[in-house]
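Private note to self, pasted from the team thread so I don't lose it. Backbone tokens:
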């Protein structure tokens, strides 16, 4: 059974935050429309359009705030743990994300808008999720780190490897100045050095669990940690 490894806000608090963002977006979205009367936009009630814009903002937040819909989980295997950017999550995020441009097209076609402000709102809602999450997720779609009881396996784009503990002389944990693990350095028995760069693999959410597993299960091989700013 998968286990949630990162505490998250309660459902009540999370929904409260989303409602607050929706309300704020609803209030600010008036500036997008060329209002001819208190509620009219060339004979149309603009409130449905404002609701659509506010929904687009909420969708953007849900894509960026992954843990609301996709709490960080790990699923134990018979001989260890596998850490990866789950493909099902990315597919769902992409489907949700596609609603954003659809909403803005509908609003543009159905209402008279202030073009400059409309473009600014559309750019923020459409670009932010892509820049923040989707591109990184697609780039690291197939990456994973698998920590077996007797081996370490990983894939980082074109870099791939499977090393049994018998092949490893020692393991060095490379941490940043905040003492957060970001690379795993393996020295093999043939004196080959392997660097597993967790920063490149979209595994930030699992760092604490990876660190704990390595120290607990590979304790005799772990020769210490080094601090790096890279």
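Design output:
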């Amino acid at each position: 059974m998968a286990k949630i490894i990162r505490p998250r806000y309660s459902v009540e608090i999370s929904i409260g935050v989303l409602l607050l963002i929706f309300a704020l977006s609803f209030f600010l979205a008036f500036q997008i429309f060329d209002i001819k009367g208190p509620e009219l936009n060339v004979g149309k009630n603009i409130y449905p359009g404002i609701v659509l814009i506010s929904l687009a903002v909420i969708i953007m937040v849900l894509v960026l705030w992954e843990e609301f819909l996709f709490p960080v989980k790990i699923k134990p295997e018979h001989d260890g743990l596998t850490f990866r950017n789950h493909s099902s999550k990315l597919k769902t995020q992409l489907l949700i994300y596609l609603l954003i441009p659809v909403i803005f097209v509908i609003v543009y076609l159905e209402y008279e808008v202030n073009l400059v402000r409309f473009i600014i709102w559309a750019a923020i809602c459409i670009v932010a999720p892509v820049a923040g999450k989707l591109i990184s997720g697609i780039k690291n779609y197939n990456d994973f780190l698998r920590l077996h009881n007797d081996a370490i396996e990983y894939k980082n784009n074109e870099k791939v490897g499977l090393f049994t503990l018998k092949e490893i002389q020692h393991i060095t944990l490379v941490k940043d100045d905040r003492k957060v693990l970001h690379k795993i350095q393996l020295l093999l028995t043939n004196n080959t050095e392997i660097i597993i760069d967790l920063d490149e693999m979209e595994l930030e959410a699992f760092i604490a669990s990876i660190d704990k597993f390595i120290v607990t299960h590979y304790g005799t091989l772990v020769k210490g940690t080094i601090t790096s700013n890279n």
